[in-house]
Specification:
This protein is α/β, with parallel strands linked by helices. It folds into two domains: about 230 residues, Carbamate kinase; about 150 residues, VC0802-like (2-Layer Sandwich), CATH 3.30.2130. Helices cover about 40% and strands about 20% of the residues. The protein is built from 14 helices and 17 strands. The strands form three sheets. It has an eight-stranded mixed β-sheet with strand order 3-5-2-1-8-10-11-9, with helices on both faces. The chain starts with a strand and ends with a helix. The mean pLDDT is about 90. The structure holds aspartic acid and magnesium ion.
């Protein structure tokens, strides 16, 4: 079971976690917990690293002090015996002292940019703190909770900030360090998100990476199921902040959930599904505050024979168009290079198409880049005109990508027909039917996005 930041941030949330663990412990032979840092803590640690780089000592010290107060206050409120509390307080001080020390080093080394391995080391404090607190909480209830650092078991490549676990090496460590604990009825409380590179440096698996840790450990331990606990009821038919009638989806296939994650449902880490799918391990998403509710179950497709769509999402895209036709390879490369140079993100091309007299490309805007991507591209085109005259007439504009998800959508022309009639009156700028056979993306003007989402959502609920 993995508990996200929103489910471990407060005493109320932790009381829920404890009662869930007590309940499940009675039902199952073995239990492993994977935990995130408390809500908002990773953001604060990243901010501290950033401030250290700017040599803003007051700034990162203030963050360390706030984190200390917050964790100590939590420990103060939890039901713990005096000795556990004293040990935890010392752990909190030690971890935050180390973090402060790292920031101090960064601040006193004037270098051009903060090295990503130091940044990873600084942010790793968040999960280390929460795992220790939760393990102590379990021990108070006579459960044998032991905090385990992901750095001791998750072996990754050296892509700091977005590392990928090496399954073979990680599995060896899991069998060595984690599996024996289960035989002794210990409940390991593993820090999510963090690992160690082959070079022995701390790495992180990308934002929301605790999901990925949980997925990798499920595979190594051949788990019966993986449950992800957070403060939402499950995967939703659409974004509930935009459409009030959004509902929980009871069942999804791995394919469907992977497409949903790719096209904007931000609940799950994008790379966590693949390992589970390969080993056919069911995944459940549940709300810590409503444990009796089923949430969403994600498993192999085939059980569900209803021919229908499951969800619809909306994300931002960038369109590029020019009044001529010809090879789109150069402009694609140009956009990719520009985005990579200015934002560190590569462009995911959704569509490239042309007619006798026009060319059109549509990219998914990386969420970390947001609205600035259009301006970035426009000025990049302007700046490189001398080199690339052929791009002078390319228009760059923001678009919305509405994606409809449902297994075997490509075999359901009748459903596609309904989708298009639902979109009556809305201009369709482009269309892409996904290669995964379970998604259809309709590209519309940003002003039409909400209406399109609403129309299609009425087909689901
Ligand atoms: N704490 C990390 C983050 O906020 C990892 C996670 O929550 O899954 O991204
Ligand atoms: Mg998360």
């Amino acid at each position: 079971m993995k508990f996200g930041g929103s489910s471990v941030g407060t005493t109320v949330a932790l009381t829920q976690v404890l009662s869930i663990v007590l309940h499940e412990h009675r039902q199952r032979d073995h239990l492993v917990l994977i935990v995130s840092a408390l809500d908002g803590v990773t953001d604060m640690l990243l901010e501290a690293a950033h401030l250290a780089q700017m040599n803003n000592q007051r700034g990162y010290r203030r963050i360390a002090a706030t984190l200390r107060t917050r964790h100590l206050a939590l420990v103060e409120q939890l039901p713990l015996v005096a000795q556990e509390r004293t040990v935890l307080q010392a752990d909190i001080d030690l971890l935050l002292f180390e973090m402060l020390d790292l920031c101090q080093n960064v601040a006193s080394t004037p270098s051009e940019s903060l090295s990503p391995d130091i940044s990873d080391k600084i942010v790793a404090a968040g999960e280390r703190l929460s795992a220790r607190i939760i393990a102590a909480l379990l021990r108070h209830k006579e459960l044998r909770g032991v905090a385990i650092d992901g750095t001791d078991i998750i072996v990754t490549d050296n892509v700091h900030g977005n590392a990928n676990p090496d399954l073979t090496l990680t599995n060896q460590r899991v069998q060595q360090h984690l599996a024996p604990l289960l035989e002794r009825d210990i409940i390991p409380v593993v820090t999510g998100f963090i690992g160690t590179s082959l070079q022995g440096k701390t790495t992180t698996l990308g934002r929301g990476g605790s999901d990925y840790t949980a997925s990798i450990l499920s595979v190594c331990l051949n788990a019966q199921e993986l449950w992800i606990w957070s403060d939402v009821d499950g995967m939703m038919t659409t974004d509930p902040r935009e459409i009030e009638t959004a509902q929980v989806i009871e069942e999804l296939s791995y394919n469907e959930v992977a497409e949903l994650a790719y096209f904007g449902a931000r609940i799950l880490h994008a790379r966590m599904i693949k390992p589970l799918r390969e080993r056919n391990i069911p995944l459940r998403i549940k709300n810590v505050y409503k444990p009796q509710q089923g949430g969403t179950l994600i498993h192999r497709s085939g059980q569900d024979t209803t021919r229908r769509i499951k969800a619809v999402t909306s994300i931002q895209g960038i369109g590029l168009s020019a009044e001529r036709s010809g090879s789109l390879v150069n402009i694609t490369r140009f956009v990719d290079e520009t985005l990579a140079l200015n934002t560190g993100n590569h462009a995911d091309v959704m569509i490239s198409s042309q007619s006798s007299a026009r060319s059109f490309l549509c990219f998914i805007v990386p969420p970390s880049v947001g609205m600035d991507a259009v301006d970035t591209l426009k000025s990049a085109i302007r700046a490189r005109l001398a080199e690339y005259r052929e791009f002078a007439d390319w228009q760059v504009h923001l678009l919305s990508i509405i994606t409809i998800v449902g297994e075997n959508l490509d075999e359901m022309p009748e459903v596609m027909g309904q989708i298009f009639s639902a979109l009556r009156g809305i201009r369709i700028v482009g269309l892409a039917q996904g290669p995964s056979r379970c998604n259809l993306s309709v590209i519309v003007e940003p002003d039409d996005a909400e209406q399109a989402l609403r129309y299609i959502h009425t087909m689901i609920v």
